[in-house]
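Notebook entry, cofactor series.
This is the third protein in the set we're modelling with a bound small molecule. For this one the ligand is magnesium ion. I'm keeping the input format identical across the series so the outputs can be compared line by line later. Sequence and SMILES below, as received.
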Amino acid sequence: MSATHADLLSDLLDGKHRALARVITKIENREPGYRELVSELHSHTGDAEVIGITGSPGAGKSTLVDKVANYYRERGETVGVIAIDPSSPFTGGAVLGDRIRMASNVGDMDVFFRSMSARGSLGGLSTATSDAVKALDAFGKDKIIIETVGAGQNEIDIVKTADTVAVLMPPESGDNVQMLKAGILEIADVFVVNKADLPGANRTVTELTEMVHMRDGQPTPEFGDDVEYDWEPEIVETVAKDGEGVAEFVGVLDEHYDVLEATGMLDAKARTRYAEEIRALLREDANRLVASEIESQGGIEELVESVFERETDPYSVAAEVISPIEDCLHD
Ligand SMILES: Nc1nc2c(ncn2[C@@H]2O[C@H](COP(=O)(O)OP(=O)(O)O)[C@@H](O)[C@H]2O)c(=O)[nH]1
Ligand SMILES: [Mg+2]
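Returned structure with ligand:
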């Protein structure tokens, strides 16, 4: 690790927010050396509670996140918020709102806000998000909130970084319950019917309740037999703009976290995430090895030409490109 990175790391661990912000920028931009930096963070992580909040644009996520963050602050807990904007190629889209939010928290840097975007990065936003979560965790934030716009696969992957996932469902928004994507349903630990001041909230609650009961009794996938985790998604109503229902919502988040801990599910989830993280990093590495092997065998255009001229075929080319890499692996 470079001397600058070593300083940055020690400043971050000393609780300097500037260093935290700079580390997240390095993560977001995949700056040279960021991997060593994230590597060093790992041993300092494992204490934060990570909460994912998703839902359609305008559902009230940012409003609710602000209220929840302040609630935690009043309880004496420190908070980090990462707002993800997967669609925007720049941080652009999220910037205006987040500048305003940062301004409203001036003087209380214990709520640390940060927006992140895709920037067309290869490794993907979910890797960058989980790395940023590590930075916040190592920094010592008690609660880390990830806010992301639902409901594609990308967002589902991002929100899986969280221990507890809340899905916002505003009433009468066209987001009716039937339209919820299966993937989102599976990851929701809490449904929040926000904008409960608007008509239709009761109906949304009823629909969600029916749906949750219909799904009741389905086994928890992928976590094996030693985990006695049996959580039925809770449904809470909030009026985020007035802070109504925030205490109840946080109560459910606390309860879910307690159940995760008591049943061993917290650790089971962490193990699953590490497996996924290792695989994702290796895919990144393997892709890079393949790209450099293609270059050293004359570049993709040259390979394409020989296929085009019927001198060889794509299968043979692939076998030739991979062969030196395979040889190294077998050594
Ligand atoms: N009526 C009502 N409006 C709300 C409530 N919560 C948020 N809003 C408004 O909904 C709009 C979108 O909120 P925002 O938090 O930016 O939504 P996001 O896109 O999901 O982050 C804003 O104008 C909020 O003031 C609520 O509980 N009731
Ligand atoms: Mg928002």
